[in-house]
Amino acid sequence: MRHLDETTTLTTTRVWRHADYALLSYIDAYGNITRYHYAPEGYLEKTQYHADTPDATISHRRLEDDFCQNRLITLTLTDIQGNRIISQVDGFGRLHRRDYQCQQHPLFSLPIEQRKYDSLGRLSRLITHDHADEEGAFRPLATRYHDVAWDQWGRHYASVDHDGEQGVCHYHHLDIIKQKSRRQSRSYRHRSQRANTVPHYSGILYERYRCGKPRRQLRLLPQPEDDKALIISELRLEYDHQYRLNAVQERQIGQAIRWRYNEDDRVEQQTLQDGSLLHYGYPSPGDGPTSIDFSAASTAPLQKLYRYDTDHWGRRTAVREGGSPAAVSIGYPSLSPLPNHYQDADGDITQFFSSHPPQLDPAKLGRWLSRMSVR
């Protein structure tokens, strides 16, 4: 490792592909280099790491050119000693299998993890394998299973953790409560109207568990109601007349988190469990929050947590923490969405250098920023 003293200038270098801002290489302050290689189709094909140390290691990730969604893709991680982690992923990005291959035994693979999915693509079983390394020989230690069950509405209903013989089952049950319709008034941006709101629903989410039973009985048992079916938590979910979640209450301790919305259906205020409030400020209906104010109670004065400024492209240009007038300023080269320098509250500047200043069409940049904006 390089020796660095207080007078050493730390420099990092990033090289971007001009067309789509794909990162090509990165050099950190210690001289370590990371290079990214892309396939003609645009996806990341291989990553190379070159460490500037005596124990330099190089890891590769290789994607086979078969990206069909009904076939498996092989991803291989290889260290300098020749040991490999081989993963099999389908075209939707779901992991199906992960194996370990030792350099001393290249034809022998140890299973690490296996995943199975149902016909709808949901996880149905997760299998993990533990192995022991004794004098260069691997032997299996334990195999753990995690089974998942879904109800007819597509919600996670139960999960069973077991060793193949017996285990623990967790049940997640949701009781739906129909609320009476009521007459409410709500003002809108362009008009006000008074209408009968439709009936809305709230629910109580129970989480229970049962243990000490054979695995087969755990999977076939209905929701338990006896003494061994202990209630871990009960959450009451409340929705308003527009089906927006406005409260989550833990029934055993009586604490709740509540939300209040503005006329544009954006979260305007959040009430935490201790009664403190968070207020969100928006510059316009389509933008994300540019300020968050905090108060310790409903009657306490507001304290600014942070506030940031944006330009007309939606890029952050300054960030202020608390009520301090000092801010961290962010600068951009021309129309680039990537910053080229930061200046903190003490005046220290962090500069980014680019050998190819981007030349972007303003219309394309606007569409890019709209996709990247925080909602």
TrEMBL record:
This is Rhs-family protein. It comes from Candidatus Sodalis endolongispinus.
